[in-house]
Design brief:
Blueprint lengths: L1 E7 L5 E10 L2 E12 L3 H12 L4 E6 L5 H4 L2 H6 L3 E8 L3 H10 L4 H8 L1 H5 L4 E5 L13 E4 L11 E3 L5 E4 L7 E7 L7 H9 L2 H9 L11 H13 L7 E6 L6 E7 L2 E3 L4 E4 L10 H9 L6 E5 L22 E5 L10 H9 L3 E5 L7 E7 L1
Parallel strand pairs: 3-4, 4-5, 5-6, 6-8, 7-9, 14-15, 15-16, 16-17
Antiparallel strand pairs: 1-2, 1-18, 2-3, 9-10, 10-11, 11-14, 12-13, 12-18
Helix pairs in contact: 4-8, 7-9
The structure holds zinc ion.
The site of zinc ion has 5 residues, from helix 2.
């Protein structure tokens, strides 16, 4: 019997979500979605340390987007000798890369990751980029399979896969026992005033800045770049872009799920939708997800409220993903007075949903044990 432990780690304003698979109590596969915190780096390190005491191999690391609070723990994982086998990131264009570089100025490790993921992780890691080109409905028969018992030495070349291409996990004993489906919505929204400023820049200027080895370049920002930098800081504008991940069974196997939060336990369906910092109020996003996931939506028992509970990214349409889904969670920093917003909390209460709030306090940890038959 395979079982899965899903944890929303208490790291404050950021994200660190893990899924560890076990077969007869032996750890066979580890998957992580984002690793960072802007409010409490110490609790993030503690969580990474306790994860690493039993598990040192990351079979898949998903990065939802390159905001600092979602990636700034990855270098620490590397320093703790984690082995990253596959890293799945959204394919972004040079203008978005440029914005993420502006947002990470001063953090050399994150800049190195954004500039060149392959050289950041090294040649033992396969980088898989998810394009925003749409596919039809996700089809499990066309999934790319990651066999966690095999080394990935034979396919280390950088790969690009289509949006909502299913990724299955197999091992020697079980074929495709779990699936992930990424949705790259990273290009969905860029506020118009920022877009106008970006259009004033030459591609050459953008590329030079992205590749600039010397971060002192910020001091010599041209007037145009300076304007964009101010706008990015003022509006937090790339925050509505993220890669969403569906995590679940693709077919109806029998499952038994127990979730623990505080001193209570709950039972729910096994699939989870990780939303990163996506803006759910963007046109068609919910319809697009539900259309492409099809019947798999019915298995979603847990949904991440995006962007740490920001009201600007929230929409009541979240309940349309699966009207039967009663459980939601969000990660926020204890000292950030504006997160989670009252609008989100009231909406959850009014719609009779249960919202698990995870901050940097150890006791706010959320854990699910999922048993597959
Ligand atoms: Zn964030």
């Amino acid at each position: 019997m395979i079982n899965l432990k899903r944890v929303v780690h208490p790291v404050g304003q950021g994200s660190f979500y893990s899924e560890s698979f076990f077969y007869m109590d032996r750890n066979i596969c580890n998957v992580i979605y984002d690793c960072g915190s802007s409010s409490n780096r110490l609790s993030l390190r503690n969580e990474i340390d306790s994860f690493s005491s039993e598990r040192k191999v990351v079979d898949i690391l998903f990065i939802s987007h390159f905001d600092n609070d979602h990636i700034n723990g990855i270098k620490y994982m590397k320093d703790q000798n984690f082995k990253f086998k596959n890293v799945i990131i959204p394919l972004i264009n040079s203008k978005d890369k440029f914005i993420y570089i502006l947002k990470n100025i001063g953090d050399e490790d994150c800049l190195a990751l954004i500039r060149n993921p392959q050289s950041f992780f090294g040649d033992q890691t396969r980088i898989i980029k998810v394009s925003s080109d749409s596919n039809g409905q996700s089809n499990r028969n066309e999934s790319i399979d990651i066999n966690v018992d095999e080394s990935n030495e034979n396919h280390l070349d950088e790969t690009t896969i289509k949006n909502n291409q299913a990724i299955s996990i197999s091992n020697r004993i079980s074929k495709a026992f779990w699936f992930y489906i990424p949705f790259n919505y990273c290009e969905k929204q860029r506020e118009e005033s920022l877009r106008n400023e970006l259009n004033k820049l030459e591609n050459k200027e953008i590329n030079e800045f992205i590749n600039s080895p010397n971060i002192e370049a910020i001091i010599n920002l041209s007037k145009n770049i300076n304007n964009i930098y101010k706008k990015v800081c003022e509006t937090n504008s790339s925050n509505n872009a993220s890669m969403i991940i569906f995590s679940g069974l693709y077919i109806a196997l029998r499952t038994f799920v127990l979730a623990f939060y505080g001193h209570c336990y709950f039972s729910m369906d096994e699939a989870c939708l990780y939303c990163g910092d996506i803006g759910l109020n963007q046109k068609n996003i919910i319809d697009d997800i539900t259309g492409k996931l099809g019947f798999s939506c019915n298995h979603i028992g847990l949904i991440q409220v995006p962007h740490h509970g920001s009201k600007a990214s929230f929409s009541d349409d979240i309940y349309k993903i699966n009207t039967r889904c009663d459980y939601f969670f969000l990660s926020y920093g204890n000292h950030r007075y504006d997160f989670p917003s009252r609008k989100v909390l009231l909406s959850m209460v009014n719609n009779h949903k249960r919202l698990f709030l995870i901050n940097e306090n150890d006791v706010s940890i959320f854990v699910q044990e999922i048993f597959l038959y």
